[in-house]
Design brief:
Rossmann fold; 9 helices; 8 strands; single chain
């Protein structure tokens, strides 16, 4: 017999956020990353629902959530805050585990740093990384503009489906540049969080070509996690031989790590 899943919406000033809840066990809130939807994470969500009461959602401009006027980091954080307020009204038996992928990890860190006691534990998947150098430099802009311009065709093909993304290539690039700035000070956010934290990190975040800028980006990504663990030695780091899409390619590994994560300090 399949798991019963409830669907509801929460509202911010300028967006309607589609939320799903299903499963039994420890409460868990799962936040997708940029350009990722609930539909994209269906395998991971189904695995987590075996042992967790999972609440997940689509960020503004993604999946079944509405378009919005703003696609800034603060606006996406507003989505997270609104969902967590709704979670608070569910009268859960315990604080939830917060799980976020990529941008979702950064949102979880910012939320937990501003709301002490809101999380039983955190599992951050390939995001919220205090990298020593910005991921996108001025020299990288032409490459990234081309990459994000190619997303337009993909967006057209997904339009009207649970996997749709409504952001323009320029909005995606601007948000990535903003996230680089956010991550330059994110260590201070980690220092305000007192619950157990695990990070799951891809070995090939920028691809596995092993040369050029991809090689440098992967080294920078690793250096950021090493910096984090030096500063916060209680954080557990798990490395997966994968790219940034590990939430789909390695869903079983991620579910296993989440299931084994500590929920008390």
């Amino acid at each position: 017999m399949g798991t019963t899943v409830d669907h509801f919406t929460v509202h911010t000033d300028d967006a309607t956020i589609a939320v799903s809840r299903g499963g039994r066990g420890r409460p868990l809130v799962l936040c997708p990353g940029l350009l990722t939807t609930q539909a994209d994470l269906c395998e991971l969500t189904d695995l987590l629902r075996r042992d967790h009461d999972v609440i997940t959602f689509d960020l503004r401009g993604h999946g079944l959530s509405s378009a919005a006027q703003r696609y800034t980091f603060r606006a996406f954080l507003d989505d997270f805050v609104a969902v967590m307020a709704a979670v608070g009204r569910l009268r859960l038996p315990a604080a939830p585990i917060l799980v976020g992928h990529s941008l979702g990890a950064d949102l979880a860190v910012h939320y937990a740093s501003e709301h002490p006691g809101s999380a039983a534990a955190m599992v951050l998947v390939d995001g919220a990384n205090p990298v020593p150098e910005p991921f996108i430099t001025e020299a990288d802009l032409p490459e990234f503009r081309a990459v994000f311009d190619n997303l337009a065709t993909w967006a057209e093909n997904s339009a009207g489906t649970p996997r749709q993304v409504l952001l323009t290539p320029r909005e995606v690039l601007d948000l990535n540049l903003e996230v680089d700035l956010v991550r330059s000070t994110i260590l201070d956010r980690y220092r305000r969080i007192d619950c157990p934290i695990s990070v799951i990190v891809s070995t090939s975040m920028a691809g596995d070509s092993g040369e050029g800028r991809a090689l440098w980006r992967n080294r920078n990504w690793r250096a950021g996690i090493e910096r984090l663990v030096r500063d916060r030695p209680h954080i557990a780091a798990w490395w997966l031989d994968a790219g940034h899409g590990l939430t789909t390619t390695h869903a079983r590994d991620i579910a296993r790590i989440i299931g084994s994560s500590r929920t008390t300090g």
